């Protein structure tokens, strides 16, 4: 897997979406989605983008592409 990983609002829940796959996995809470997405991004050396309910990217973390783990 090489696509960026997004945590997005999905109705009253939150979802993890992986670019290029077209699938979304839903979670009851934002925190649960972020925890799972972070583990997945670290394992696959992907970029993690966390969106707010407003649709904007609120946080971005890079876990691959030859750079050290960064959050911001």
How would you describe what is shown here?
A hairpin with a 5-residue loop joins strand 2 (13-18) and strand 3 (24-27). A six-stranded mixed sheet has the order 3-2-1-4-5-6, covered by helices on one side. The chain has one domain. With 72 residues, it is α+β, with helices and mostly antiparallel strands. The N and C termini lie far apart (23 Å). It contains one helix and six strands. It has one helix spanning 30-44, and strands at 5-10, 13-18, 24-27, 47-51, 57-62, 70-71. 21% of the residues lie in helices and 40% in strands.
SSE inventory with pairings:
Blueprint: E1 5-10, E2 13-18, E3 24-27, H1 30-44, E4 47-51, E5 57-62, E6 70-71
Parallel strand pairs: 1-4
Antiparallel strand pairs: 1-2, 2-3, 4-5, 5-6
- Proportion in β-strands: 35-45%
* Regions with little confidence, pLDDT below 50 for 5+ residues: none
The profile of the biggest β sheet is: 6 strands, mixed
User: What percentage of residues falls in helices of 4 or more residues?
Assistant: 10-25%
Count of DSSP strands: 6
Radius of gyration: 11 Å
> Can you list the strand order of the major beta sheet?
3-2-1-4-5-6
Beginning-to-end CA distance, first to last residue: 23 Å
Count helical runs: 1
Gross geometry: globular
InterPro entries: DUF2188
Protein name: DUF2188 domain-containing protein
Region (Disordered): 51-72
Organism: Cupriavidus metallidurans
